[in-house]
Amino acid sequence: MESMRANEPMVDGMTLRRGSRVRLRPSQRADIVDLALAGRIAEVDRVEEDADGRVHVVVMLDGDPGRDLGSMSQLGHRFFFTPEELEPLAEAGDRPPDPQVLVAGIGDAFRVDGSFGSEVVDRLRGNRLPPGVHTADFGIRLADLAQALQEGYGAAVLLCATSRGREPGTLSVTDPSKAGEDGNAGSGAEGPLGAVGLARRCGVRCRILLVECEPADPATDGHSATAGVLSPPVSAVLDEAVPLVEGLLNDLLIPREPV
User: Which among 55, 27, 60, 23 is positioned nearest to 39, based on CA atoms?
Assistant: First the structure.
């Protein structure tokens, strides 16, 4: 179905927009899916208008583990409703903030320390993150990452192992745009700068930060490449990486006046 972004519809005096929480009220109840969804709580992902001018609200179910995969996860994870089939839950002044920051782990788990980003994401999910933060583990699916970054995020934090000739386990935060590397290919486990470049070519304009960890070098450090297992130097800094990312999130979520 060809569609385009639509104006935010009003239901019961409240505007439905990305991040709005709603209760599903399927009007047709024509099949088992409608019956299963009736009464469920969901969050608005986006509002679209088809070629005939009909407005559709795309929602994600609360508690769905596949909701953070971006628009590539639409099948079975995102559902289309008319505005009349949705019951807004939050009061106008109490609406949760729109998702603002995507925290994404990237890297090849079959390379030395390539699962660093995935491990940090898992630990972050065990903490209470600020409203407006979505987490996802993309691995080597950089095209899916670029697609997800087009979902209206104000910023993104990419977590990855990157070889830059430092001591194994060294953590760093890089803003590729300020370092003159925005869009260039990287030398990390899955080329984090290449991921940034792909996102930029897809039209992504949000701020992107890289949280990188120097991987061990099997040739000199004696650490073998074991899928999903981190080397001792990298494993030792996971507890340091988590508060580092949380500090970045607190800064990125501070409202700023438009420049």
Answer: 23
Residue 86 amino acid letter: L
Q: Which amino acid is at 176?
A: P
Which two tokens mark 198?
A: 């792909």
Whether residue 153 contacts residue 199, with contact meaning beta carbons closer than 8 Å, is answered with no
pTM above 0.70, yes or no: no
> Any idea how long the chain is?
259
Q: Dmax over Cα atoms in the chain, in whole Å?
A: 65
What does DSSP say about strands 3-5 and 21-24: parallel, antiparallel, or unpaired?
unpaired
Please, are residues 97 and 132 in contact by the beta-carbon 8 Å criterion? yes
State which fold the 3-93 domain adopts.
Answer: SH3 type barrels. (2.30.30)
Q: Residue 143 has which token pair?
A: 């095209």
Nearest to 207 by CA among 239, 164, 173: 173
For domain 101-252, which architecture applies?
3-Layer(aba) Sandwich (3.40)
What are the extents of the domains in the chain?
3-93, 101-252
Find tokens 């009061």 and name the residue. 91
From first to last of the 259 residues of the chain, give the pLDDT tens digit.
444 444 667 666 677 877 788 888 887 656 677 777 888 888 888 888 887 788 888 888 876 655 555 554 455 578 888 889 888 886 545 555 555 899 999 998 888 899 999 999 999 988 888 888 889 999 888 888 888 888 778 899 999 999 888 999 999 999 988 766 555 444 343 467 788 888 888 888 889 999 999 998 876 665 555 656 899 999 999 999 999 999 999 888 876 544 3
C-alpha pair distances (Å), 176 with each of 132, 157, 254: 23, 11, 21
Number of DSSP helices (H) and strands (E) in the chain, helices first: 7, 13
